[in-house]
C-alpha cells in the first residue's frame, strides 16, 4: 500500500490486516505520520511492514517490488490539496503523475500487474447532471484533478499495451468519518478546505464558525450537494476490489459513493446532532469552481464488487466527532 499512513490508507490497512492480509506500507509521510499505523497495529494486533520512501525515488520502488513478492498494489499516495495544486502544478505533476509512472514501471519489472488506484469524482469535472455514472465525460477543472485524469489515462494506455493487467480505478466521492474506535481519523495539516473536518474543528473551538459557501444554488435548500461516504465503507470497498481484482480486465472505473446527495445545511444539522450543540455557521458567497451537485450512481460498485455503502450521515458525523473530540490535535 502506497500512502498507507494517510487518512484513507490507514483505514484500509486496518481492514486488510483484519481480513488476514499481509500489508507493506510505502509512505514518505508528506501528509501523515507513522503514528496512524502504530494505532492500526494496536487495534488489529497485527502490524504492517513499514517502508519509508518516496514515489519519486524510482530505484527505491524497483528494489521494493523487484522481488516479485506482491499479489497486488493499492495506490493511495499522492498530494490532494486543490488550492496548492493551482499554486504548485509542477509539484503535483511530479509527485502524483511521475510518482505513479515510477510505481507502474516497478510493478511491471517485478511482475505484479494488479492495482487498485485512488481516483476521484473530480475526474467528472463539472458534471451536467446527477447521479453520475462511470460513462460520463471526463475532464479536469484544476491541476490536482488533471493528475488523477492523467494517471487514469496512463493506466488505460498501459493495460491496452500489454495483456494481463487488472486495474481498479476507484473514483471516491466525499470521504468523511473515522474508525468507530476514535483512534484513527483524518488529520489535515493547516486549515482544512473540506467541509467535514472544518465543521468538526469548529466544534472543538478551533474556528469561530463554518462558512456555508453559497446559498443560492438550484438545490432544495440552496446549498451545495455532495455524496458523503464513510471512510470505513470506503476501506471495505478496497478489500472487495482486491478480492475481485481478477474480474477487472484492463483498467476499469468504479464510483464509490452512497448514491445519496446531502446539502451543506443537512451536514451541519447532522454534525450538530452528533456534537450535541448547534455548530455556528455564516452564510457566505459561493466558492469559485464548486458544482451545485455531485453524487454517484453506485450501481457498478454493487455489480463489480458486491459492495454497497452501509453507514449513514449520522454515523459519519458521530464517528468523525469521536475521533476529533478524542484527538483535538490529530496525531500530534
Ligand atoms: P492523505 O494525504 O491522508 O494520504 C496520502 C498519503 O500519501 C499520505 O500518507 C502521504 O504522506 C503519502 N504521500 C504523498 N506523496 C507521496 C510520495 N511522493 N511518496 C510516498 N508517499 C506519499 O490523503 P487521503 O485522503 O488518504 O487520500 C488518499 C488518496 O485518495 C489520494 O490519492 C487522494 O488524492 C485520493 N482521494 C482522496 C479524497 C479525499 O477527499 N480524501 C477524495 C478523492 C480521492
Ligand atoms: N463547503 C462549505 N464550507 C466549507 C467547505 C466546503 O460550505 O468550509 C461546501 C462546498 O461548497 C461543497 C461542500 O461543502 O458544496 C463540500 O466541499 P468539500 O470541500 O468538502 O468537497 P468538494 O466536493 O468540494 O471536493 C472534494 C475534494 C476534491 C475532490 C472532490 C470529489 O476536496 O479534491 O471532493 O471527490 F475532487
Features:
binds nicotinamide-adenine-dinucleotide, Rossmann fold, 332 residues, four-stranded parallel β-sheet, 11 helices, binds uridine-5'-diphosphate-4-deoxy-4-fluoro-alpha-D-galactose, 16% strand, 40% helix, single chain, three-stranded mixed β-sheet, alpha/beta
Strand proportion, as a percent range, falls in 15-25%
Integer tally of domains: 1
- Global mean pLDDT: 97
Biggest β-sheet: count, sense, barrel?
4 strands, parallel
CATH topology: Rossmann fold
Strand order of the largest sheet: 3-4-5-10
How far is the first residue's CA from the last residue's CA? Answer: 23 Å
Number of strands: 13
Poorly predicted runs are none
Alpha plus pi helix count: 11
Topology as H/E string? HEHEHEHHEHEEHEEEHEEHEEHH
Q: Which superfamily, in CATH terms, is the homologous superfamily?
A: NAD(P)-binding Rossmann-like Domain
Tertiary shape: globular
The level of helicity is: 25-40%
Summed up, what is this model?
The chain is an alpha/beta fold and 332 residues long. It has helices spanning 7-18, 35-44, 58-65, 82-87, 89-110, 143-161, 195-203, 231-243, 264-275, 299-305, 313-326, and strands at 24-27, 49-52, 73-75, 114-120, 166-172, 174-176, 210-213, 225-226, 228-230, 250-256, 262-263, 281-284, 293-294.
Q: Would you write up a description of this structure?
A:
The chain is of the alpha/beta class. The chain has one domain: NAD(P)-binding Rossmann-like Domain (Rossmann fold). It is built from eleven helices and 13 strands. It has helices at residues 7-18, 35-44, 58-65, 82-87, 89-110, 143-161, 195-203, 231-243, 264-275, 299-305, 313-326, and strands at 24-27, 49-52, 73-75, 114-120, 166-172, 174-176, 210-213, 225-226, 228-230, 250-256, 262-263, 281-284, 293-294. The strands form five sheets. It has a four-stranded parallel beta sheet with strand order 3-4-5-10, with helices on both faces. Strands 11-8-13 form a three-stranded mixed beta sheet. Strand 1 (24-27), helix 2 (35-44) and strand 2 form a beta-alpha-beta unit. Helix 1 packs parallel to helix 2, helix 1 crosses helix 8 (231-243) and helix 5 packs parallel to helix 6. The chain is globular. The two termini are 23 Å apart. Bound molecules: nicotinamide-adenine-dinucleotide and uridine-5'-diphosphate-4-deoxy-4-fluoro-alpha-D-galactose. The site of nicotinamide-adenine-dinucleotide has 27 residues, from helix 1, helix 5 and strand 4.
Amino acid at each position: 500500500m502506497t500512502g498507507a499512513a494517510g487518512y484513507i490508507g490507514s483505514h484500509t490497512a486496518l481492514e486488510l490486516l483484519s481480513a488476514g492480509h499481509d500489508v507493506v506500507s510505502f509512505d514518505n509521510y508528506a501528509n501523515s505520520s507513522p503514528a496512524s499505523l502504530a494505532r492500526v497495529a494496536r487495534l488489529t494486533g497485527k502490524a504492517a511492514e513499514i517502508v519509508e520512501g518516496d514515489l519519486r525515488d524510482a530505484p527505491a520502488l524497483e528494489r521494493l517490488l523487484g522481488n516479485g513478492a506482491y499479489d497486488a498494489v493499492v495506490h493511495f499516495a499522492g498530494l490532494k490539496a486543490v488550492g496548492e495544486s493551482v499554486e504548485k502544478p509542477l509539484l503535483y505533476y511530479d509527485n502524483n503523475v511521475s510518482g505513479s509512472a515510477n510505481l507502474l514501471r516497478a510493478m511491471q519489472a517485478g511482475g505484479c500487474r494488479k492495482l487498485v488506484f485512488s481516483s476521484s469524482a473530480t475526474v467528472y469535472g463539472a458534471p451536467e447532471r446527477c447521479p453520475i455514472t462511470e460513462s460520463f465525460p471526463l475532464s479536469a477543472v484544476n491541476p490536482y484533478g488533471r493528475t488523477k485524469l492523467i494517471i487514469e489515462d496512463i493506466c488505460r494506455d498501459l493495460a491496452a499495451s500489454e495483456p494481463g493487467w487488472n486495474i481498479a480505478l476507484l473514483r471516491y466521492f466525499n470521504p468523511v468519518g473515522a474508525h468507530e474506535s476514535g483512534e484513527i481519523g483524518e488529520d489535515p495539516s493547516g486549515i482544512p478546505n473540506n467541509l467535514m473536518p472544518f465543521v468538526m474543528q469548529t466544534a472543538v473551538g478551533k474556528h469561530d464558525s463554518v462558512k456555508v459557501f453559497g446559498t443560492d444554488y438550484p438545490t432544495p435548500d440552496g446549498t451545495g450537494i455532495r455524496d458523503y461516504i464513510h471512510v470505513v465503507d470506503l476501506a471495505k470497498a478496497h478489500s472487495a476490489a482486491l478480492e475481485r481484482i481478477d474480474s477487472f480486465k484492463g483498467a476499469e472505473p468504479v464510483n464509490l459513493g452512497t448514491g445519496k446527495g446531502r446539502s451543506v445545511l443537512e451536514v451541519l444539522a447532522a454534525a450538530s446532532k452528533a456534537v450535541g450543540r448547534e455548530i455556528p455557521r455564516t452564510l457566505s458567497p459561493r466558492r469559485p469552481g464548486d458544482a451545485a451537485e455531485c453524487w454517484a450512481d453506485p450501481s457498478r460498485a454493487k455489480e463489480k464488487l458486491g459492495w454497497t455503502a452501509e453507514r449513514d450521515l449520522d454515523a459519519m458525523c458521530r464517528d468523525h466527532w469521536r475521533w476529533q473530540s478524542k484527538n483535538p490535535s490529530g496525531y500530534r
